[in-house]
Design brief:
Helix 2 crosses helix 4 (179-186). By secondary structure, this protein is of the alpha+beta class. The protein has one domain: Tumour Suppressor Smad4 (Sandwich). It contains 5 helices and 13 strands. It has helices at 20-28, 31-37, 53-56, 179-186, 189-196, and strands at residues 6-7, 10-11, 42-45, 84-86, 99-102, 109-110, 121-124, 134-138, 145-147, 150-151, 158-160, 164-168, 172-177. The protein is 18% helix and 23% strand. A hairpin with a 3-residue loop joins strand 12 (164-168) and strand 13 (172-177). The strands form 3 sheets. Strands 4-3-13-12-9-10 form a 6-stranded antiparallel β-sheet. A 5-stranded mixed β-sheet has the order 6-5-7-8-11, with no helix packed on it.
């Protein structure tokens, strides 16, 4: 998969991504190959009308994207939009392992939804010995974060596992998925819709 380049002061790949290119990769690769291709977890957003189209649809500047009108390719469906976000480091301090999700275009995962704070949530990758699982930490967001049905206390890390969901800002839901589980969902449309069309 081609990774988008930096545009307008931030990396386009930090924006939510269209599902279709990942579906195509899942269809042509077995699960092990897909996991090697994308060796990081993903957020799969439940279909929502909350997305700010002014950031999702913007004009490209120069390079291969000269004259383009979309930051990334999106399919807009009646009833809202659903996207994927690879959970990986892109733009924030490379010396800090935390992967930051927020509305600000300086974050690793940009979520253009008004109820999301500029620096809303941090994903903390596993570390050998000290922290064997992924963790999430609310960064003191204005509208809060929930892991499944538990409201996160600000600045306190909580373990998160495959197939658990986050509620961000009170109304945006995203499933945390390991790549093998995502591969299965992308190859099983009915199962995918059970998560995206809640």
């Amino acid at each position: 998969m081609t990774q988008p380049s930096a545009v307008a002061g931030f990396k386009r790949e930090a924006l939510p991504q269209d599902i279709e290119p990942y579906r195509q990769e899942a269809a042509k690769n077995d699960q092990t190959s897909f996991e090697k291709l994308v060796p990081y977890p993903f957020l799969l957003y439940v279909r929502s009308k909350l997305w700010d189209k002014s950031l999702l649809v913007a004009r490209g500047h120069g390079g291969d994207d000269a004259g383009a009108t979309r930051m990334v390719r999106y399919e807009f469906y009646e009833g809202g939009y659903t996207f994927l976000h690879p959970v990986r480091k892109r733009q924030t301090n490379p010396g800090d392992a935390a992967i930051i999700l927020g509305r600000s275009t300086s974050q690793d995962l940009i979520v253009p939804v008004p109820s999301i704070s500029n620096s809303h949530l941090a994903f903390l990758p596993p570390t050998a010995g000290a922290r064997p699982l992924w963790h999430v930490k609310d960064n003191g967001s204005s509208n809060g974060s929930w892991l499944n049905d538990t409201k996160l206390e600000p600045l306190k890390p909580y373990p998160i596992q495959d197939n658990e969901y986050l509620r961000l800002g009170g109304n945006l839901i995203a499933w945390f998925l390991y790549p093998g589980h995502l591969w299965f969902l992308l190859n099983n449309d009915d199962e995918l819709k059970k998560l995206t069309d809640v």
